[in-house]
Write a structure and sequence with these properties.
The chain is mainly α and 273 residues long. The chain is 66% helix and 11% strand. α2 packs antiparallel against α3. The N terminus is likely disordered.
Length: 273
C-alpha cells in the first residue's frame, strides 16, 4: 500500500469518527429539544446521564491523585510554586466534587415538590465553585505576602545537593560519630588501641572499617571473640552497618597514625571516663 493509499485510509477513518461524533451530538441536541417540548427521549437521555456520571467521577478521581502527588512534593520541598499547584488541584477536586453531586442531583426525575425537575442544581453548583475559587485565591495571596515579608533561603535544595555529593564521594562520617565508634571499640575489654578508622555512607548503610590492637600473646580464637564483641557493640548502635575489623598485635604499633587513630593510652583513658 502506497503513501497515498495510507493517507486515504487515515482520512476515511477520521471521517467516520467525525460522522459518529456529529451523529452523537445531533442525538443529544434532539433529546434536549424533545425534553424542552415535554417529550423526553428515554434512550438518549439515559445515555447522556451515564456519560455525565462517568465524566464527573473520573474528574474527581484524577484530581485526588494529583493532590496526593503534589502534597508529597510540597512537604518535601516547601516550595510556594508547588503549593500554588497543590491549591489549584484542591480547587479542581472541590469543583469536580461539586459537579459530581450537582449532576447526580440534576438527573433526578421531577417529583411532587419539584415539578420542573432538578436541572437548576447545576447553576447552584456554579455559584459554589465561584466561592471556592475566591477562597483559594485569598489563601494563596496570604501565603505569598507571608513569604515576601519573611523570605526563606533555599536551604533545603542546597542540603539535599550537598548530601548527594557526600554520598557519591564517600565522605567520612562526622567527627562525633567517628569518636563514638572509637569509644565503642575501646569499651570492649582487652582492646588496647584503635587505629585506621575509615567510614562512609551508602544510602542507609554505614560502611565502617577499623583496626583494633590486642596483646601479642592472645590466642587466635580469643582475638576473634574480641573482634566479634566490638562488631556487636557498633552494630547495636547502627543496625544498618557493614563492619570490617582487623586484629593487629599491639607491639607493631603505628608508624604514621591515620586520621581517627588513637594511642594506647587513649583507650585506657576512654574506658575510665
Amino acid at each position: 500500500m502506497g503513501a497515498m493509499d495510507s493517507a486515504g485510509v487515515t482520512l476515511a477513518r477520521l471521517g467516520k469518527k467525525r460522522s459518529r461524533m456529529r451523529a452523537f451530538a445531533q442525538q443529544i441536541a434532539i433529546a434536549a429539544r424533545f425534553r424542552s417540548m415535554g417529550v423526553p427521549s428515554v434512550a438518549t437521555s439515559a445515555e447522556a446521564a451515564r456519560l455525565l456520571r462517568i465524566a464527573t467521577s473520573a474528574s474527581v478521581v484524577t484530581a485526588a491523585l494529583l493532590i496526593v502527588a503534589k502534597l508529597a512534593a510540597w512537604l518535601a520541598t516547601g516550595s510556594v510554586s508547588v503549593l500554588a499547584s497543590l491549591v489549584d488541584s484542591v480547587m479542581d477536586a472541590g469543583a469536580s466534587l461539586v459537579n459530581l453531586l450537582a449532576v447526580r442531583w440534576s438527573l433526578q426525575p421531577a417529583d411532587a415538590d419539584h415539578r420542573f425537575g432538578h436541572g437548576k442544581a447545576q447553576p447552584l453548583a456554579a455559584l459554589g465553585q465561584a466561592a471556592f475559587i475566591a477562597g483559594s485565591a485569598v489563601f494563596l495571596g496570604l501565603q505569598a505576602v507571608d513569604r515576601l515579608l519573611h523570605p526563606q533561603p533555599i536551604t533545603s535544595a542546597l542540603r539535599i545537593g550537598r548530601e548527594a555529593v557526600d554520598l557519591l564521594l564517600d565522605r567520612e562520617l562526622p567527627d562525633s560519630q567517628r569518636a563514638e565508634i572509637i569509644d565503642l571499640a575501646c569499651s570492649v575489654p582487652m582492646v588496647r588501641n584503635v587505629h585506621g578508622l575509615r567510614s562512609h555512607r551508602s544510602g542507609q548503610v554505614l560502611g565502617i572499617q577499623l583496626h583494633i590492637e590486642l596483646d601479642d600473646d592472645l590466642e587466635l580464637l580469643q582475638a576473634h571473640r574480641i573482634a566479634v564483641a566490638v562488631e556487636h557493640r557498633i552494630r547495636d548502635r547502627w543496625p544498618q552497618s557493614d563492619i570490617i575489623i582487623h586484629q593487629d598485635p599491639v607491639s607493631l604499633g603505628v608508624d604514621e597514625p591515620e586520621p581517627g587513630s588513637t594511642t594506647a593510652s587513649d583507650c585506657a583513658i576512654r574506658s575510665t571516663n
